[in-house]
Amino acid sequence: MTKYIIRRVLQFVLIVFIANSLTFIVPRLVRGDPITEFLNNQQILNPNPEFETWVADYKARFGVDRPLWQQYLSFWAGVLKGDFGYSITAFPQTVWHRIRVALPWTIGLVSTGTLLAFLVGALLGALLGWPDAPQIFQWLVPVLMILGGIPFWLFSFAVIWLFAVELQLFPPSGGINMLDVLIQGNTLQAHVTSILQHAALPIFVFVIFGIGGWGLSMRANLIMTLGEDYILFAHAKGLPERRIFLRYGVRNALLPVITALAMAIGGIISGSTLLESAFSYPGLGGVVGTAIGQRDYFVISGAAFFMILSSALALLLVDLLYPLIDPRVRYQ
Amino acid sequence: MQAKKLFSSILGMAIVMVLIFTSCAQPTPQVQIVEKIVTEIVKETVIVEVEGEQVVTEVEKVVEKVVEVEVLVTPTPEPIIGAMQSIPRDRTLVLGAWEHAAQLNGTDNFNPIINIASVRTNYAKWVFEALMYYNMNTGEEYPWLAESYKLDDDFKGITMYLRKGVTWSDDEPFTCEDVKFTIEAHMNTETAARRGEFSKWFESVNCIDDFTVRIDYTDTNPRIHQRLLIGWENHFVIVPEHIFADKDVATFTNLDLGKGWPIGTGPYKLILVSPQQVIYDRRDTWWGAELSFMDMPEPLRIVGTNAATDEAYAQLYMTDRLDYGGFALMLGSFEAARARNATVRSWFTEGPAYGAPDGCVYQLQLNNNRFDTNVRLALNYALDRQEIVDLAYQGATYAKVAPISDYVTGAGWDRIVQPIIDKYNRDAPSQAKVDEYMKAAGYAKNADGFWAKDGKVLEFVVTVPVPWAVMGPVIAEQFTRAGIKASENLDTAGQFANMITTGDYDGVAYVHCGSNFDPFDSLNVFHGQCYAEPGESLPAGCGIFHGHRFEGDPGMDAAIEMMEKTAPDPNNAEYVKWVETAVDAYMRELPTLVIAEELHIITMNDSYWTGWPTADDPYVAPYPCWSDFTLAIYRIQPTR
Prior knowledge:
The structure holds two protein chains of two kinds.
Chain A lengths: L1 H28 L4 H12 L5 H12 L5 H14 L13 H35 L10 H10 L2 H15 L11 H6 L4 H39 L2 H9 L3 H26 L6 H6 L5 H10 L3 H29 L7
Helix pairs in contact in A: 1-14, 2-3, 5-9, 5-11, 5-14, 6-9, 7-9, 9-11, 10-11, 11-14, 13-14
Chain B lengths: L1 H23 L5 E21 L2 E21 L18 E9 L16 H4 L11 E4 L4 E4 L2 E6 L5 E6 L13 H13 L6 H7 E8 L2 E6 L8 H4 L11 H4 L23 E6 L4 E5 L4 H4 L10 E7 L2 H9 L5 E2 L5 H10 L3 E2 L10 E11 L6 H10 L2 H8 L13 H19 L6 H10 L3 E2 L5 E3 L2 E2 L1 E7 L5 H11 L3 E7 L4 H7 L4 E7 L6 H5 L29 H11 L8 H17 L3 E8 L3 E2 L3 E2 L26 E2 L2
Parallel strand pairs in B: 3-12, 3-13, 19-20, 19-21
Antiparallel strand pairs in B: 1-2, 4-5, 6-7, 7-9, 8-9, 10-11, 11-12, 14-23, 15-21, 15-22, 16-17, 17-18, 24-25
């Protein structure tokens, strides 16, 4: 068992190292130089007759005037100290600041959405796969497949249009509206209400789209489980249907879905860029999207570090915990 | 075991809730004794003389007394949850930032010397003020922190006279030392926004007295004062020397609400800052009102907010959540917003060209290392500008052929420039002229109908950065139609500036931003000094707008050099002659292909506030990201 854990932890370290190295190197292989690009664009606002000196100052400040291998070592030294440097395009803002202000929004939105989608989806999927469930559930299969097939952003616009613009039940964009909060006395309740109001529509969209995937995979697992000998044996023993469904059917069918859930939770930090963009939600997706568009190396590397870390950590935990969940899997 | 787990969970949740409540608690008011001036009506016995006789009478008199009173004082609010006053929506102004982003840019730094975004995007312009403001529509200057200025006759220096009686929000007086410090900080700080220009042109900054600033230049420059005194997209605001002097300007963030930072001379104070909203409340006192210079602005609160997409801004307008600004809407979004909310409008009331000029024009910037005059002229006649306007911009702008924005031509230069433009009549698409100029350049059409020379087909890649993406396909199609094998390269990675600098491009469709005050800066970019040989990068000091790789025209170069050293004046016959020479050379050579005026649909909502700058009342250019937009805050009135 100890060997197993050590091997998995080493694997985790290797994944984090290789993935972060790639996110460090790949953006730098793209032609051009983002600092000159950024300052060239700044020239439109502030013409600088000493442009070359300006570029050189910035390059020295960001350390990109040094050979790539030195920059690479500095990157890892910074990572170990939790210092990801400055954003190129939002200088003098630090990368950590950009991540810090965005991360809680993404975690809040995506984790709530993932868990809700999982709970509803898994339950629906189980009922879909259970032969004794009411017939109406069978009608949900095509509905779930259709929902899973509509483009995410298109559905988001439709939801915004209906609930935010036409009915005006929810705000169309943002994460919180401090104007409303202050009008309502700046109380904790006003803060929470505003946050929930703003999160309602994106979470709704997230859940609707998530249900399809979770539901269909749970249904497939349950159908396979129901074909197992022990289910037949349970029926032969005359156990109550409810007990067979919950204890022998759902419980065993959930195992692979829980693995997928663990990995989905690991991907929470990666967020949902399109969803955040459609709702102008202030999460990490927008920060990363902008950074990629502007080739802000430092923000890309900083944000990717947390995404990689959380995904790899989730994989590690699944690896370590799975033998506890499923006794058929052993620490080997 | 189960009970223990349940207990632990409840305890954990309770701790979290307590932490939340503790962090969000209202600051406790404290009793303080303060002096207060009260007025009382007292009766006084006086002796007056009535018809030569002295009479004792009692009169009422208003007197002021200083008394000590107990008051409840609430500590300065924390940025997140605290005792901030509730101001109704109809006294609050909600402004959108000039960007598409889910988080406001630059909200952690209110040092305008190193973070221009703090004044440009998140509206710190309500805290910091400029020396003067400017109406680009009329050329009118609005003296503000400076009352007047005088340029030396030889343009080798400037003397600025500051307004007396101006105070910072912490009651410190505003003086020449603040101006001197700010300029020198820009000159001496590596990453300062204005370091390049100021350190190049300013020899020294001195205070003649508390309210007189003297700046000596390193050389003759009749325009550099515009960077100090004229707003536009250029933001030069004065910072308090008494706050900044002992700080490292390069790292000082100037943000500490507990200390009242940022300290400014403006009528608003920052009360809350977050990446989603920046909120300012009107101060009780402001020097402008105390000096009877201006009335207090009407909005009691200003909220700066933002959205990530064009559609999201439109939705905010539809639901009255935005009063002004945001990044300019696209035509479709604007019309959708207006259809839903009748109080939404733009600079012009009638469309589709609703927008206001922003001082730039759309252009196809040519790499003239690759194209001689004949090919350039052929490309020009292959362009159908009106079709680009109609297809790419849905008619929301108008065609243009000279690189001079409407702000310049409207300032008295049109009568000089327009006859030359008319003489050349370059905005007239013609396949016959394409054929004529391509043949003159030595090309012949091949079997596929494409122009070729020495067996090599002329290919043209139209690189187009994302903000101007709509132009790319139309231009490529027009060139192909004319026999020039063109394709579009959508620059999603923002590499166009590097391509221009290094000369690795055929043409880039984006903007040409020159002067907003006279034709000089617009024409200066075509001076031959910025020519670079193929494969070489642009010479030092030549930015992307200079990257046409145009060898220059001797007459044009000479005229531009004379213009550079002379104050612009459409009534100065000599200056006019140089402008005519340069414009004539430009129209003859067409070193770039100007397509249309760049108009932005700056959106405004009359639901809560009215009195916005419009074409009918052009008291200031409408761009919320420009320094001068500050003036609008003193004009708008609540509608409810």
